[in-house]
Task: inverse folding
């Protein structure tokens, strides 16, 4: 029951279960899953029940109900909420409660969604395994020895563990799609500017975007429709009408649609054979549904990750300057006296607060970004990366002149064992190989579950579309799920 | 300038002026910009730099900045963008200031300055650029309460500033002051800024060094940036002090611009000296990069034209017009125009009624300006309207009031808020009948035969003593009329 938002809406409408009952069940499962999976940084026990009671009251008294009425939803702990802490899974913001709700959070509340808690993530969204969280790793419901991916690892794992039907994550270089792939769920990164970033704690402002995770394309479409839309408080928000996504799921007929299969991605060294097969199989599914399959190259694809790992840390180094211990967040108390006498109390407070409040990966990226923006180096690094970014946009423009959608793998491998890349940041960064392109180009992309590997771990395939063409992704993704059963697979310990 | 030991020096000055723009709200959020509110009451997640909050450009600030640029003869480029200037300080809550690096909203311009009383356009000072940026908050260090006690007020955080950078074209402290006066006049004239140094709505940093000519060679002293000056007079004094200090330092150490990088010195108004603040300009790396939260701004030619058309007359043009239209002298026009837009408007409103620009000019420079200065009020708060002032002045022109009675009326209007006629009534001033005056004059002449005798002996000024007596007997007697009558009657005696 908790694996479909559409189903929850139906059974509430028919009176089979109340919002409170559904919420209680969700909270029960969250509590039960925490010890093993640890998908949540905060469980909104009382607030969720109160919200559910309000929905039930509305229903009893015949008041209009929102589109997400009574649906338990978990949100990544990077979205500001007034009634729960917003920690970004960092010691720096361990006790921080935002004075305002993120725009997407307000939208969920307006639609009567039940916010059941905040989900674990890599610290400040920096990582691909949720291992950099100050609140401990999140484990993959399919196999607790492997990672759920990241940075939205908690948001993907909580859906995969059957605790909630849908969640919100954020995606800067693949942080929705990669964990979706690793956890066997569907995840969408909308076009940059589609969803307001107001209240999304910034990692890399020109790349960050909020998006939904759920089992099915149908639920992803439902949640996307709610969160998309122009917002004057975000200058990078696109003044475009909200797309009709739910109604895009009309038929499974893909005739007239051209899908480009990413040749260079499939030829990459280190691409898991099972993932290669899944992509080829998906191409066949789309072909059967009437689509034309064309081979496509993205000529500069080998430069995507290097460009990303200059631009994202550069912006991050600036965005994270505000965490200095002066106004909110962690402040070092016992200052090392030799630092105070060396640099004065102010600099000592800054240094020690940041040294204590940030974890290793965050510090690494602040250092990389600071270096890349420094006088004398910015031309070689930051400005050079911006040039590459323009080439990347050119790659996609050229590709979308030939096709409507691009098909490829979401990740080079399935979920890796916890700790495997912990000592090797470069290996960890390569996990983003196929996902960063969409962020750098600002286009929408979606990961779809595409079966299991020999070792029983989920495989994700990725569809990418031109800017603002989310409806094409939903349309094709729904056709794929109509023809396959992969989104109905459930991890063994979480079949309810 | 020639120093005592015979070397000719040239002073090189460039000014960086921060002007706080008069907008209702801050540069990137909706918080009020009112000065003087209780600390940390005019703040929101955006200007507090809270996680997740995002800036949105204030269109009014763009408008005002463009207007300022046009008033400084700047080129307004088609595109401008926002950059982050990064440094850590407690009154800068984001850890960066949103500013403009390589594409400022105003590109090169100039200001023509006049040295006091010399008229317009003596020297052209080039302006390098003017860019928009957000202000930081205020740190108040309480040293008495222990070394860690610093209070931070973030009300000012995010207030729009325009930083106007001149080329090093100024050659003396007088020129620097004249530049600042002209700049302030233009900014206040157009309502762009209050330009109150005391309130911090205008701040000046001066870059100063000397070119010393020794045996046909030019030696440049190290550049010093002077900060902490809180009045135009202080700027003038600080530069003069710095000129002497640098010359002495050069004589003593022989250090030139090649031996020492730029230093920062603070101005101490009490001692009249500058003091070293930062030894070497720490090679501050602000790591500027384009702010990804804001889009570049395109400024259409039409928009610039619209703003240009809204500007109307600039102060220099008003001065010219006053000379031709009202027949007043260049000096008088300058005094009036330099008081700012409100004063100009008040003056013109009065002239429109009384029709006498010269008389109004005298009154405005004396009585009205004195009142404003004495009461320490803004012209906008002056209690008598331009129309009422015009009516008062017209009564002088028409002979209904003499200057001294008019001053009484003026004072009464100030004190009681009455209009002109009510004040005249209250003071018991009535028009004197000419037959009554004639009788008075005849009486005076017959009572003072020695005056008549003196007059007949060629001492015309003897009549003057009777005017004072007439005024004593009837305060409403118009001295001019009395004089004419006395002369008429004495001839017939």
Result:
């Amino acid at each position: 029951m908790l694996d479909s938002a559409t189903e929850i809406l139906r059974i509430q409408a028919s009176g089979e279960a109340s919002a409170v009952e559904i919420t209680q069940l969700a909270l029960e499962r969250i509590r039960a899953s925490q010890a093993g999976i640890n998908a949540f940084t905060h469980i909104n026990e009382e607030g969720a029940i109160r919200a559910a009671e309000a929905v039930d009251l509305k229903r009893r008294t015949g008041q209009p109900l929102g589109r997400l009425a009574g649906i338990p939803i978990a949100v990544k702990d990077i979205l500001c909420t007034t009634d729960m802490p917003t920690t970004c899974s960092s010691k720096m913001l361990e006790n921080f409660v935002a004075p305002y709700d993120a725009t997407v959070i307000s939208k969920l509340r307006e639609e009567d969604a039940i916010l059941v808690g905040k989900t674990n993530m890599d610290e400040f969204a920096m990582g691909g395994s949720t291992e950099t969280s100050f609140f401990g790793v999140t484990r993959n419901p399919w196999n607790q020895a492997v990672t759920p991916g990241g940075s939205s690892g908690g948001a993907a794992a909580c859906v995969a563990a059957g605790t909630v039907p849908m969640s919100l994550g954020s995606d800067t270089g693949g942080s929705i799609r990669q964990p979706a792939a690793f956890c066997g769920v569907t995840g969408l990164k909308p076009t940059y500017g589609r969803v307001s970033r107001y209240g999304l704690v910034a990692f890399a402002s020109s790349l960050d975007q909020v998006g939904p995770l759920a089992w099915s394309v149908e639920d992803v479409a439902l949640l996307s429709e709610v969160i998309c839309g122009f917002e004057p408080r975000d200058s990078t928000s696109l003044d475009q009408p909200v797309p009709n996504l739910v109604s895009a799921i009309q038929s499974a007929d893909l005739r007239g649609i051209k899908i480009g299969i990413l040749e260079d991605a499939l030829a990459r060294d280190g691409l898991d054979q099972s993932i290669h097969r899944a992509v080829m199989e998906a191409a066949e599914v789309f072909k059967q549904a009437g689509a034309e399959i064309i081979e496509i190259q993205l000529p500069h694809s080998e430069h995507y990750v290097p460009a990303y790992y200059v631009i994202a840390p550069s912006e991050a180094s600036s965005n994270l300057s505000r965490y200095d211990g002066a106004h909110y967040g962690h402040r070092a108390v016992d200052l090392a006296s030799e630092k105070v006498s060396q640099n004065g109390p102010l600099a000592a407070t800054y240094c020690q607060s940041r040294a204590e409040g940030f974890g290793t990966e965050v510090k690494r990226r602040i250092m990389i970004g600071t270096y890349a923006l420094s006088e004398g180096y910015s031309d070689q690094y930051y400005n050079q990366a911006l040039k590459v970014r323009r080439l990347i946009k050119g790659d996609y423009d050229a590709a979308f002149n030939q096709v409507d959608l691009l098909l490829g793998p979401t990740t080079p491998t399935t979920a890796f064992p916890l700790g495997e890349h912990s000592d090797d940041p470069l290996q960890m960064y390569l996990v983003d190989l196929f996902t960063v392109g969409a962020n750098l180009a600002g286009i929408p992309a979606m990961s779809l579950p595409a079966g299991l590997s020999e070792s029983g771990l989920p495989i994700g395939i990725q569809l990418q579309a031109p800017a603002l063409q989310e409806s094409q992704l939903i349309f094709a993704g729904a056709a794929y799920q109509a023809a396959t059963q992969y989104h109905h697979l459930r991890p063994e310990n979480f079949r309810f | 300038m020639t120093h005592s030991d015979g070397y000719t020096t040239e002073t090189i000055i460039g000014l960086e002026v921060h002007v706080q723009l008069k907008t209702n709200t801050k540069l990137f959020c909706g918080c009020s910009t009112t000065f003087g509110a209780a600390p940390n009451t005019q703040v929101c997640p955006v200007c507090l730099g809270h996680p997740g909050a995002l800036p949105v450009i204030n269109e009014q600030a763009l408008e005002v900045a463009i207007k300022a640029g046009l008033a400084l003869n700047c080129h307004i480029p088609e595109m401008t963008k926002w950059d982050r200037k990064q440094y850590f300080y407690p009154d800068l809550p984001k850890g960066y200031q949103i500013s403009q690096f390589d594409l400022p909203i105003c590109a090169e311009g100039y200001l023509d300055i006049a040295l006091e009383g010399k008229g317009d356009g003596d020297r052209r000072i080039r302006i390098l650029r003017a860019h928009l940026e957000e202000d930081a908050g205020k740190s108040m260090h309480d040293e008495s309460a222990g070394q860690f006690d610093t209070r931070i007020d973030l009300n000012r955080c995010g207030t729009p500033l325009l930083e106007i950078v001149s080329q090093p074209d100024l050659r003396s402290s007088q020129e620097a002051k004249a530049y600042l006066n002209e700049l302030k006049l233009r900014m206040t004239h157009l309502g762009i800024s209050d330009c109150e140094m005391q309130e911090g709505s205008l701040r000046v940093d001066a870059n100063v060094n000397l070119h010393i000519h020794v045996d046909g060679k030019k030696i440049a002293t190290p550049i010093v940036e002077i900060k902490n000056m809180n009045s135009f007079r202080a700027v003038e004094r600080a530069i003069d002090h710095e000129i002497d200090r640098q010359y002495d330092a050069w004589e003593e150490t022989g250090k030139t611009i090649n031996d020492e990088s730029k230093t920062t010195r603070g101005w101490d108004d009490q001692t009249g000296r500058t003091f070293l603040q930062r030894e070497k300009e720490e090679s501050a790396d602000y790591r500027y990069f384009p702010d990804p939260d804001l889009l570049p701004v395109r400024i259409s030619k039409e928009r610039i034209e619209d703003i240009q058309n809204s500007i109307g007359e600039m102060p220099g043009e008003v001065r010219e017009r006053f000379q031709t239209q009202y027949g007043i002298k260049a000096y008088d026009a300058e005094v009036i125009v330099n008081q700012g837009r409100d004063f100009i408007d008040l003056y013109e409103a009065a002239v429109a009624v009384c029709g006498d620009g010269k008389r109004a000019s005298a009154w405005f420079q004396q009585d009205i300006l004195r009142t404003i200065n004495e009461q320490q009020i803004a012209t906008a708060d002056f209690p008598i309207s331009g129309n009422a002032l015009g009516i008062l002045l017209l009564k002088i022109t028409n002979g209904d009031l003499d200057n001294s009675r008019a001053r009484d009326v003026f004072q009464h209007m100030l004190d009681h808020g009455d209009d002109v006629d009510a004040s005249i009534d209250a003071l018991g001033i009535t028009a004197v009948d000419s037959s009554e005056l004639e009788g008075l004059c005849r009486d005076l002449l017959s009572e003072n035969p020695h005056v008549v005798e003196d007059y007949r002996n060629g001492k015309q000024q003897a009549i003057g003593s009777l005017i004072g007596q007439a005024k004593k007997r009837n305060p409403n007697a118009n001295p001019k009329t009395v004089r004419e009558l006395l002369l008429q009657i004495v001839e017939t005696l």
